[in-house]
Amino acid sequence: MLTEYLRGLLPRPSTVDVPDTVLEATARVDPDHLTRYARVCGATLSGPLPPAYPHVLAGGTALRLMADRSFPFRLPGLVHVRQRITVRRPVGVTEPLTVRVHAERLVPHRRGATVDLVTDVLVGAEEVWQGRSTYLRRGATVPGAAVDEEPPEPVPATAYVVVPNGIGRRYGAVSGDRNPIHLSAATARPFGYRTAIAHGMWSAARCLAALGGRLPDAYTVEVRFVRPVRVPGRAGFGARFDGTGGVFALSAPTDDRVLVAGSWA
């Protein structure tokens, strides 16, 4: 992955567009890697794969696509702002998987421009999992008008999530995502951050782990990374359930501002 990340540092053509490339790879779960992931994210090792783990499993394939010069943005400084995960059925740890990744939907954002990376995970011909990751390049310009997002729904915190010092390096080691904004304050400052910020997918995985056994066998999770989760620190966690799904949030412990907002159904 280091070679791919270094390729991702190279300048991009002046014409910004989304490549029509589709990359495919086979994958099998390494039990040792899954154990390290579970320790970092607080996920359980019993039963099927944790819901956010296929994102990590497909990380090398996604990085190859993003590192290519046809991808519209260089890797350093990209910010993960939204994530959708669709679990179509529980995925067994020993199942042989096929991963397909493509990019689409390059659109304006009030802070720049975003592009979506779509990951499909299949067992044979059956799609069992899909992820849609939206990445922001601050200051980029593309044609069109940005769409305003609804304010995130606050959820009263009932517990706290500890954000340990070095969690960006630990999650980067298991995911391969070594974006400098996550690694240390020194490497994050050139990109406009006072401290390192946690990976969005670590925050999402930590929230999903906190929901425990309340998630059904098939569902879609929508997550917005509203404000940076600073490293180190802590965040309030709250969740509300209804008959068909629910909402959850991480919030700042000092003023209850929403940091991460999510829902599932």
From TrEMBL:
SUPFAM superfamilies xrefs: Thioesterase/thiol ester dehydrase-isomerase
Residue runs in coiled coils: none
Top-rank taxon, per record: Bacteria
Gene3D superfamilies registered for this protein in UniProt: Hotdog Thioesterase
Domain MaoC-like: 169-235
Any Pfam family matching the protein: MaoC_dehydratas
InterPro entries, sorted: HotDog_dom_sf, MaoC-like_dom
Assigned protein family: Belongs to the enoyl-CoA hydratase/isomerase family.
Protein name: MaoC-like domain-containing protein
